[in-house]
Amino acid sequence: MSIVPFKKRAVTPACRDVASAVRAGQRGPAPTGRLIAVGGGKGGTGKSVFAANLAVLGSLRGRHVVLVDGDLGLANLHLLLGIEAEKNLLSLLEPGWSSQPELLREGPAGVWLLPGGSGVERLAGLNRGDLRRLVHRLEPYVQNAELVIIDLSSGISPSTRLFLQAAQEIVVVANPEPSAMLDAYGVIKLVTQQGHTGGMHLVMNRARDLSAAQECGRRMLTTVRQFLGRNLNFLGCIPEDEAVIASVQRRRPLALDRADSPAAAALRMIAQQLIDGVVPSGNTLSTFFMTAKALVAPRRRSTKSSCVL
């Protein structure tokens, strides 16, 4: 099954093949793009605002972008993008599920959103079987994207742990305050202990004092290298900015609403580094699904041998 209508550009034969596959219920080609997971241990760091604007800036740089709201129980990306979301990822768990192209909603600058659910109890606490269904059924919606960005929930819910462990690229969004820094370190430590060896990036957001925030970022790099034995790429700082609050209230991404603001300028610099300057080798989207499927595969039951020696 393959679903991705993407930007309203000229319709190519490949696009027609995708549409035909959706109607026929056929499986499309393996994913060939790049996937970035955006997380942070503490709520309120601004990771959803960061993810939404990163998606917009990626689209403005010519990428086909799908933004997945992985904050499954308290989703809000549709609000930040000014999108009316009638359906959400809960549809993928329904018994009679079938490919639903309308689940993808087009947003500002040509970004496509897969909405999460807000206040949906089942999405907030998925069991292993639900996670397995979600991973398998999510793949057709993103497999033709050049860039997939997953905005994860705060904390370490089962879905967040799964997506972090499977993602080859992770951006941790933190604030320059002790509790946020501690939680960010906790996330990095958790995924490292689970065997994650992919790219790990840090963004300091909502910085009232840029020099102090940069120092916090440098200390985090040193701490992660010393105690976890891995490298962390510091992408930079985004200043506290009234324009961010105004853009959220207007339900319009800052990168479009106030492109001249200090926070928007910082976001552009970070997006440029992440999208153009720090490009991983290999197919991180395909690797994500391969890894995630293996992590949630049905466990084999061990049976005692009936052989009698």
Walk me through this protein's architecture:
The protein has helices at residues 13-24, 47-60, 77-80, 121-124, 128-142, 158-166, 178-193, 210-228, 242-249, 254-257, 262-277, 284-295, and strands at 34-39, 65-70, 105-106, 112-114, 147-152, 169-174, 199-207, 233-239. It has 309 residues and is of the alpha/beta class. It has one domain (37-293): P-loop containing nucleotide triphosphate hydrolases (Rossmann fold). The longest helix is centred in the last third of the chain and has 19 residues, at 210-228. The chain starts with 12 loop residues before the first helix and ends in a 14-residue tail after the last helix.
Walk me through the topology.
Elements: H1 13-24, E1 34-39, H2 47-60, E2 65-70, H3 77-80, E3 105-106, E4 112-114, H4 121-124, H5 128-142, E5 147-152, H6 158-166, E6 169-174, H7 178-193, E7 199-207, H8 210-228, E8 233-239, H9 242-249, H10 254-257, H11 262-277, H12 284-295
Parallel strand pairs: 1-5, 1-6, 2-4, 2-5, 6-7, 7-8
Antiparallel strand pairs: 3-4
Q: Termini distance?
A: 50 Å
Shape: globular
Strand-and-helix sequence, N→C? HEHEHEEHHEHEHEHEHHHH
Tally of discrete structural domains: 1
Enumerate the strands of the largest sheet in spatial order, edge to edge or round the barrel. Answer: 3-4-2-5-1-6-7-8
Oligomer: single chain
CATH class placement:
Alpha Beta
Overall pLDDT score? 85
Strand content: 5-15%
Structural class: alpha/beta
Classify the helix fraction into a percent range: 40-55%
Q: How is the main sheet built?
A: 8 strands, mixed
The second-level CATH architecture is: 3-Layer(aba) Sandwich
Determine the CATH topology: Rossmann fold
